[in-house]
Amino acid sequence: MYAFELVRAKSVADAAALLAKTGGRPLAGGQSLVGAMKLRLAQPGTLVDLSAIAELRGIRKEGAALVVGAMSRHAEVAASADVKAAIPALAVLAEGIGDRQVRNMGTLGGAIAHSDPAADWPAGVLGLGATVITNRGKHAADGFFKGLYETALGADEIVTAVSFPVPRKAAYLKFKNPASRFALVGVFVAQLGDGTVRVAVTGAAATPFRCAPLEQALAKSFTADAAKAVKVGASGLSGDLHASPEYRAHLIPVLAARAVAALS
In this structure, are strands 138-140 and 131-134 parallel, antiparallel, or unpaired? Predict the structure, then answer.
């Protein structure tokens, strides 16, 4: 690990000022960033610790939405009665992240800002059409994830919360790497309050994406059979020692069908 300076911010405004001044990186749970630093894949000169900022924590219901603070830990989301009542699929998603240590340290805001291509939270954000709230404004989910480890966030922009619309029904399933529990493929299926169907996929490409063929099929018939009948092309999907692009393409409708079946 390279040498770095650690400073603790007292507020969101203080953190933004420190980031602008130092050109450093925000530190949330550190489960991804610190690992990259240990491998010398990341070399921030300054880390701005967000852990003392109370306004970044908390989970609350606001009208037809569930708002989750950016510094809410995965374990807190998984155990939240409000989450289980409003969007139980998010509790399931959070409970399936990493191991107990990761769930008790990692945060929602850190996960989506890091935008790992195999992370679980991006699928939930995109699948529900959530709104990412920052110190500068708001980002719609459809425009937030830009590419491999790339988002729409500015250099000194900080995620403060995510607002998830409460759907009629939603489910998340993933085919996980047995060692890391990252998604080889993860599929989040949601039927929103207006009947719109959204299907988001993680682990299969450089960035999470919506699967239009599945959305169209499930909009006509929200059944497992409709999802099973969809053929997803392998073009643009990832291939590695764990799974080929063709295998990932095969898994997408299989997992979508199982998600829909679990909701029936």
Answer: antiparallel
Question: What's the rounded Cα separation, in Å, for the pair 100 and 17?
Answer: 33
Tens digit of pLDDT for each residue in 52-103? 999 999 999 999 999 999 999 999 999 999 999 999 999 999 999 999 999 9
Give the sign of the dihedral formed by CA 25, CA 126, CA 187, CA 241.
negative
Q: Give the architecture-level CATH label for domain 169-263.
A: 2-Layer Sandwich (3.30)
Instruction: Give the start-end residues of each E strand in the chain.
Output: 5-8, 25-27, 46-49, 59-62, 65-69, 131-134, 138-140, 145-147, 150-151, 159-165, 169-176, 183-191, 197-202, 209-210
Which residue is listed with tokens 């610790």?
49
- DSSP-derived 3-state class of residue 58: coil
What are the backbone angles phi and psi of residue 26, rounded to the nearest 5°? -75, 145
Map out the domains of the chain as residue ranges: 1-54, 169-263
Residue 21 neighbours by CB under 8 Å, 6+ apart: none
Sheet holding 25-27, edge to edge: 5-8, 46-49, 25-27
CATH code of 1-54, in short, is 3.30.43.10
Instruction: Measure the CA–CA gap between 77 and 39, rounded to whole angstroms.
Output: 29
